[in-house]
Amino acid sequence: MEVISFCKENPVLQRTVLIVVCLTSFLTPFMLSGVNIALPMIQAEFGASAVQLTWVITSFLLAISVFLVPMGKLADMYGRRRFFIYGLLGFVITSIGSGLAVSMPMLIAMRALQGIGGAMLQCTGVAILVSVFPGQQRGRAMGFLLAAVYLGLSLGPFVGGWLTRVLGWRSIFLLNATLCIYALGLTWARLKEEWIEGKDESFDWQGSLVYGTGLTCFMIGAPRVPDMSACLLVAAGMGGLIMFVRMEQHTTYPVLDMHLFSASRAFAFSNVAALIHYAASYATMFLLSLYLQYMKGMQPQTAGLILLFQPVFQAVLSPFAGRLSDRIEPGILASVGMGMTGLGLGFFAYLRPDSSLVLIVCVLSFMGIGCALFSSPNMNAIMGSVHRRQYSVAAGISSTMRTLGMMASMGISTVLFAFMLKNAAIEPVTYPLFLKTVRLCFLLFACMCACGIYFSLARGKIHGHQGGGRDEEECLQEH
User: Fold this and answer.
1) Mean pLDDT lowest among 2-11, 109-118, 170-179, 452-461
2) Which of 100, 246, 299, 335 has the most Cβ atoms closer than 10 angstroms to its Cβ?
3) Tens-place pLDDT, residues 67-115
4) pLDDT digits (tens, 9 = 90+) for 159-174
């Protein structure tokens, strides 16, 4: 197996990498949005509580959050292709296991294991893509990657709803396994190169353990607050995360480089803004899928069509927003987008059982425009505020912030459902309390967006920032 540098250009290799990375980048959002629409049928089959339903999503996101950074470090040390294949194999096995689950605990456990595979794919896929495309082609490659992500978000509710209605919710996982098998075969047969750039470094086991333990304690304890044991778990989790940050600042080979946050205000605030935006907006699909199916009595496929509007607008407009941010300060565009998202969430805080579907569609479309105006310019700001040699590290941290935000969004929803509904199932007798909880979630998310606007504006100017960096000629000379 050939170990190559990131500067070597190979059209066949580039095409293969682009196909498999875009396919795996499609699968994670497709699974998340597709499973959201199937939750009522999962509840009906297993008699699950509202809190258990949230853990079908949260367990997956929690596992990704815990393992994303450590797996990225291990992949740099032992081979990105190797860990990419491990991730695909894990996704195949756990997708089949989820589709054959016989109980809620088994389904949640399979989803958690699936999250570990997802972490391997996320941390290696983008790194491999950056490694094979030179600087002048990376923007185009990342554009395809972004399109794949939003395509997964767009098709997930519709395809997931159709599969759930025609073949049952298990078919979503089995379809995912089939696509993963194709990607695994393509990777194994045609992607022979390996990338190892940190083989002389040591792995920060202590930092990884503290990070994973702290995050897990927080997420397990949060849904059971205000129980005393849950409060202790939350406190222990917060303490562990604070300890992790301090440990990484004094570690020779940290699993997460904290220097980037202290060295660049623009980088730090852009990542904080991303964390807040995803924490405020991600649970929208989860909450509205339940609202449309329970309160409006829609079939999964119909609800999926309604939810399709936001990601479609985001997918179509994101490339335009990215190009626009090359001429206009990314912070301004991102702040406008954050504000539009907050306004949409504020509207949903006033949902009623008889709320107009046309108005809901219009608000989702409005939020899709806002998300597009935020996401692409904010990523442009993140990558434009670091040195070229830090692109991979910056992309990894950005991915971690995004995943943590998604997990936080589901965590907040879980806490509020646990506090308001306890362990009660969502049924006609609890519909009023369910709707009240949904409205409270959206109100809190809208307030978070208002706070996020501050960080988006306070990041400072990106255009004219001298991040430095090496050009391709210097790279070729070095290697």
Assistant:
1) 2-11
2) 335
3) 887 887 788 778 888 888 999 999 999 999 999 999 899 999 999 999 9
4) 888 888 888 889 999 9
CATH number at residue 112: 1.20.1250.20
Angle subtended at Cα 115 by Cα 111 and Cα 119, rounded to the nearest 5 degrees: 170
| Residue 42 is assigned to a structural domain of this protein | yes
User: Terminal CA-to-CA distance of the chain, rounded, Å?
Assistant: 18
Q: What is the mean pLDDT of the chain?
A: 81
Check pLDDT > 80 for residue 138.
no
Q: Within a domain: residue 477?
A: no
Indicate if 248 and 143 belong to the same structural domain: no
**Alpha-carbon distance 64 to 91, whole Å?**
12
Q: Please give the radius of gyration of the chain, using alpha carbons only, rounded to the nearest integer.
A: 21
CA distance 380 to 330: 7
In a domain, 195, yes or no: no
Calculate helix-pair angle for 309-324, 135-166, nearest 10 degrees: 170
Q: Check whether residue 38 and residue 166 sit in a common domain.
A: yes
Tell me, yes or no, whether 268 and 247 share the same domain: no
pTM of the complete model: 0.74
Residues of the domain holding 235? 205-255
Q: Which residues are within 8 A (CB) of 473 and not within 5 positions of it... i.e. 6 or more apart?
A: none
Same domain, 271 and 360: yes
Same-domain check for residues 27 and 90? yes
Count the domains in the chain.
3
Whole-number Å distance between alpha carbons of 186 and 190: 6
Q: Are 1 and 39 found together in one domain?
A: yes
Residue 39 has pLDDT above 90, yes or no: no
What is the rounded distance in angstroms from the CA atom of residue 333 to the CA atom of residue 384? 15
Residue 2: inside a domain: yes
